[in-house]
């Protein structure tokens, strides 16, 4: 029985890739230095997998930035603005990061901050990889895009592995390629009217060349990922899969068609007819169709099943997994392969280094390194060759977790049993609430505010670090934070903002800050996962029933309100966003965990109101990204996601104003759900789209107040008064002025004061111009 892996974390056990990339981009390291570090990570990853007993090793799962960008450079899909005579990694870095006029050859300036500098050098668009928190650079197909093998790093890495790893042959390597149909599905046509699918025939020619070249190197199996098979595909995309694999089956290699994150749904019948040598199926997220896949997949082909979760951090119940695979083993014999559900890219590297986690909790977890062992153990269990001690330890941990008082809190469960007693509606509808709020706050037309955070200076970070390390007493820390808050309020007073915020100097991250104060959450020290390029995140682990020991934000907001006569917004992160950006417990429905978080936030909202904070913002940045991959599943998700927001906010008085913020989302297909949230004010990103994203609210006739962002906080550019006036006037053509707010696109945490203050001054002056224009 073959044991294989779909991909391994590429950041290195100590984030070596992150630091090497950033050193190179700053000019502190050479490209040779970067390449050497990347080689060390790749070799170490392969050695780790070999030591764990992985039979077929993934190759080409390494990427400096993301695997879709790798595929673009491999296929020659390089936008005209970045093409040069020969390919080198800087071309890919410029595609991902843009190119500033002062580009010194190190792939452009940091992040995407140069987007506004020139039409010729902007970075490629970035999107989430299906329903994960990983990102990819969107391929751009231009009229003169000519598919051709341009980037040879795939072949170099095969040679690297076979020459540097003792006893490893090409037949033990399994190159990982993004499939041609998924690649086109993710791509965008630039400047041409034809849909991307029309490019399939010419793209397949290059894929055939690619597969033939791999065969010449001695490769037997190629993992070809088509995750769009988890979507509800139209007939033309289903037909494209048939066309593609009929063409690719003519090559000498064996293709392992790989899908993950969802069931195959109505795509199953077509998949079973494809001329491929094997299929990998996600047996966890595709659980509902697992038996059907086992039954319908041809018995003379390989079926790879993923029963070890590549998306979450919990130990696998190996006995239960083996039981689920018994029918597959009986049908396929040694043609049944064992793998994780998806690439292990999405989980931290190694649990062994986490010395500060509670031992009991640590015993319930498995990171990438430990999941390799689980895959091997599962195969050995099916083969009746299992290490009995290891299996007993696994079963003991699974049983203990099910009964653990660390996980299960009777008080929380009692409260959850009474959820139906909580009214989800505010005491009165928006129209009546607005009449109570307007005289209370006495805000002008086009009231100005910000989204919450202000620049996190080095001084602020140092204060937090000293306090966390025990070098600063709590009294000294509180005083230092109050000084920072006082400074932010003075700046806002000078700028002339109408509704203020305290600036959030005490917050390290919009999810981590709350998780650290809630029971049921744990935080790792080294549990980093790659988001894209050098950007890594360290998600919290929601391991148990969630409760709030004490108020989390009240003392900061209360102090801030004492420093000004203007309204002060309380700032919270919403339950869905906390859920989405965490590793979530898998022993109960996500809806249940979300409701537990919502109850803690409901308590926090009411405490803020009782403390005199009468404007409260609950950010739900991740509401849309939580949508299931299949649209037929959206309604149920949106039901509980929206209800969790309403549960958070429904306990306040009519004259308390509830805000929410959603950044960088398209709202057309979820606008009815957004309206059901019934926030008094919603702020959204619209400046990059020149207010186009506002169209959904206009077409729907959104009834409440809206703050369409008037400048892009991800750019250091300082917008002029007139630029912002033009944007707000565009919004005011369709939304009544009395329901429009003026604000930036998002929080200002990552900006510096030198651009933040003048931009906000211009924003306030733009609002004044509009008020004068309206009066005249």
Notes on the structure:
This protein has 776 residues and is an alpha/beta fold. The protein contains 28 helices and 21 strands. The strands form 6 sheets. A 7-stranded parallel β-sheet has the order 1-5-7-8-9-10-11. Helix 25 (671-677) links the parallel strand 19 and strand 20 (681-684). The chain is globular, with a radius of gyration of 27 Å.
In brief, what are we looking at here?
By secondary structure, this protein is α/β, with parallel strands linked by helices. It is 41% helix and 12% strand.
Tell me the β content: 5-15%
First CA to last CA: what distance? 80 Å
The radius of gyration over CA amounts to 27 Å
CATH topology of the largest domain: TIM Barrel
CATH C-level class of the largest domain: Alpha Beta
- The CATH level-2 architecture of the largest domain is identified as Alpha-Beta Barrel
Number of domains: 2
For this entry, what is the oligomeric state of its chains?
single chain
Strand adjacency order, main sheet: 1-5-7-8-9-10-11
User: What is the residue-averaged pLDDT?
Assistant: 93
Task: Report the uncertain regions.
Answer: 108-120
Largest sheet: 7 strands, parallel
How many runs of DSSP E, i.e. beta strands? 21
Helix- and strand-based class? Answer: alpha/beta
Total DSSP helices: 28
Tell me the layout of helices and strands.
Elements lengths: L15 H10 L5 H21 L5 E3 L7 H8 L14 H9 L28 E3 L6 E3 L2 E3 L10 H12 L8 E6 L1 H7 L1 E3 L9 H17 L4 E5 L9 H14 L5 E5 L9 H5 L5 E5 L7 H7 L5 E7 L9 H7 L1 H7 L3 E5 L18 H4 L5 H15 L5 H16 L6 H7 L13 H12 L16 H11 L5 H22 L16 H4 L3 E4 L6 E4 L2 E3 L3 E7 L6 H9 L6 E5 L1 H6 L2 E2 L5 H21 L4 E5 L14 H16 L7 E6 L8 H7 L3 E4 L10 H6 L4 E4 L12 H12 L20 H23 L1
Parallel strand pairs: 1-5, 4-6, 5-7, 7-8, 8-9, 9-10, 10-11, 15-17, 16-18, 18-19, 19-20, 20-21
Antiparallel strand pairs: 2-3, 12-15, 13-14
Helix pairs in contact: 1-2, 7-8, 11-14, 18-19, 23-24, 24-25, 27-28
């Amino acid at each position: 029985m073959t044991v294989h892996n779909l991909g391994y974390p590429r950041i290195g056990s100590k984030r070596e890739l992150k630091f090497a990339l950033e050193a190179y981009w700053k000019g502190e390291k050479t490209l040779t230095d970067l390449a050497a570090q990347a080689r060390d990570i790749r070799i170490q990853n392969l050695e780790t997998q070999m030591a764990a007993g992985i039979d077929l090793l993934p190759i080409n799962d390494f990427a400096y930035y993301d695997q879709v960008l790798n595929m673009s450079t491999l296929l020659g899909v390089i936008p005209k603005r970045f093409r040069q005579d020969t390919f080198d990694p800087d071309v890919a870095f410029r595609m991902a990061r843009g190119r500033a006029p002062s580009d010194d050859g190190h792939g452009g300036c940091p992040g995407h901050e140069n987007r506004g500098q020139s039409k010729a050098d902007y970075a490629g668009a970035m999107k989430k990889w299906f329903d994960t928190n990983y990102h990819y650079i969107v391929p751009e197909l231009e009229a003169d895009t000519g598919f051709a093998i341009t980037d040879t790093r795939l072949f170099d890495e095969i040679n690297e592995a076979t020459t540097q790893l003792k006893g490893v042959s090409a037949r033990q390597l399994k190159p990982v390629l993004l499939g041609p149909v998924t690649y086109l599905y993710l791509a965008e046509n630039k400047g041409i009217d034809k849909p991307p699918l029309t490019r399939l025939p010419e793209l397949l020619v290059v894929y055939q060349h690619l597969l033939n070249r791999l065969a010449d190197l001695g490769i037997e199996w190629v993992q070809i990922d088509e995750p769009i098979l988890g979507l509800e595909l139209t007939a033309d995309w289903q037909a494209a899969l048939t066309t593609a694999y009929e063409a690719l089956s003519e090559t000498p290699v064996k293709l392992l068609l790989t899908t993950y994150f969802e069931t195959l749904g109505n795509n199953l019948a077509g998949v079973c007819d494809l001329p491929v040598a094997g299929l990998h199926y996600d047996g966890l997220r595709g659980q509902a169709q697992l038996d059907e896949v086992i039954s319908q997949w041809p018995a003379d082909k390989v079926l790879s099943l993923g029963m070890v979760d590549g998306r979450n951090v919990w130990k696998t119940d190996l006995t239960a997994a083996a039981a689920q695979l018994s029918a597959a083993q009986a049908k396929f014999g040694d043609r049944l392969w064992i793998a994780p559900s998806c690439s292990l890219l999405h989980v931290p590297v190694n649990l062994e280094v986490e010395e500060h986690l509670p031992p009991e909790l640590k015993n319930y977890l498995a990171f990438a390194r430990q999941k390799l062992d689980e895959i091997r153990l599962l195969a050995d269990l099916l083969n009746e060759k299992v290490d009995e001690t290891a299996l007993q330890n696994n079963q003991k941990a699974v049983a203990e977790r099910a009964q653990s008082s660390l996980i299960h809190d009777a008080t929380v469960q009692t409260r959850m049993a009474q959820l139906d007693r909580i009214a989800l509606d505010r005491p009165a509808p928006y129209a009546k609430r607005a009449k109570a709020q307007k005289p209370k706050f006495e805000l002008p037309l086009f009231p100005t505010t910000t989204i919450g955070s202000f620049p996190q200076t080095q001084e602020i970070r140092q204060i937090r670090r000293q306090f966390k390390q025990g070098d600063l007493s709590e009294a000294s820390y509180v005083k230092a934070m109050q000084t920072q808050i006082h400074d932010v309020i003075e700046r806002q007073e000078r700028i002339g903002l109408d509704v203020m915020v305290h600036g959030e100097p005490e917050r390290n991250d919009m999810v981590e800050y709350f998780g650290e104060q809630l029971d049921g959450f744990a935080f790792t020290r080294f549990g980093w996962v790659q988001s894209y390029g050098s950007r890594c995140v360290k998600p919290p682990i929601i391991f148990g029933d969630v409760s709030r020991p004490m108020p989390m934000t009240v003392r900061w907001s209360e102090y801030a309100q004492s420093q000004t006569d203007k309204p002060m917004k309380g700032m919270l992160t919403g339950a869905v966003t906390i859920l989405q950006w965490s590793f979530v417990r898998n022993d109960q429905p996500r809806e249940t965990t979300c409701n537990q978080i919502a109850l803690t936030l409901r308590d926090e909202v009411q405490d803020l109101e009782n403390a005199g904070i009468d404007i409260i913002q609950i950010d739900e940045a991740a509401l849309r990204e939580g949508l299931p991959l299949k649209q037929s599943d959206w309604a149920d998700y949106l039901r509980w996601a929206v209800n969790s927001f309403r549960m958070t906010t429904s306990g306040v008085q009519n004259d308390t104003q509830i805000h929410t913020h959603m950044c960088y989302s398209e709202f057309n297909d979820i606008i009815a759900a957004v309206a059901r949230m019934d926030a008094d004010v919603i702020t959204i990103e619209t400046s990059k789209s020149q207010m186009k994203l506002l169209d959904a609210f206009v077409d729907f006739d959104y009834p409440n107040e809206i703050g369409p962002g008037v400048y892009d906080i991800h750019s250091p550019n300082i917008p002029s008064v007139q630029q912002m006036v033009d944007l707000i006037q565009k919004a005011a053509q369709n939304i009544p002025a009395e329901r429009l707010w003026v604000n930036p696109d998002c929080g200002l945490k990552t900006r510096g004061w030198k651009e933040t203050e003048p931009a906000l001054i211009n924003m306030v002056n733009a609002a004044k111009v509009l008020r004068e224009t309206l009066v005249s």
